[in-house]
Amino acid sequence: MRYLNYLLLAIVLGVMQGCFPIVAAGVGAGALISSDRRTAGIILEDQNIESKALNQINVQYKDTVYVNITSFNRRVLITGQVPNEKAKADIEKIVTSLTNVKAVNNELQISSLTDLSWRSNDGLITSNIKLRFLNNSRGFQPEHVKIVTENSSVFLMGLVYHKEAEAAADIASSSRGVERVVKVFEYLD
Prior knowledge:
Layout: H1 2-35, H2 40-61, E1 66-72, E2 75-82, H3 85-96, E3 103-110, H4 116-134, E4 146-150, E5 153-160, H5 162-173, E6 180-187
Helix pairs in contact: 2-3
């Protein structure tokens, strides 16, 4: 009987150790969702809007454009490069026609596509701003602000109060490599 208890204990501990990463990941995702000002349903809708838009754009334009779609609370930011005004307008129509899209901010540039070094630089700018947000003492939660960097232009999105928006924009605009900051916020006050 004693042997059976030890065997069961070993099995339970083994199973629990295997489940820990899954439970920890679930708790982490739950914590992020609970600190987000959007509902879980809206977060899912934003992800669907992004994937549907990119799929439709890729079908129509393949490798002739470089487009990023960022949806936050069903407000969509379009960034990237396109060859001409027609492509810019067509892509905006694709996004606008999607179900549940409330607003579209089309920031596409008519230019040649940026190369990997530009995109890497944009990633460094975003990382630097995120780090500065974490170290801020200006009274806003960094997870309330979404940062999108395209060709050294920084776009700030989120559901924020005006005071939070100003603090985030000040931090972003004083970050190295930033050429301009565009606020695409939805305000709570």
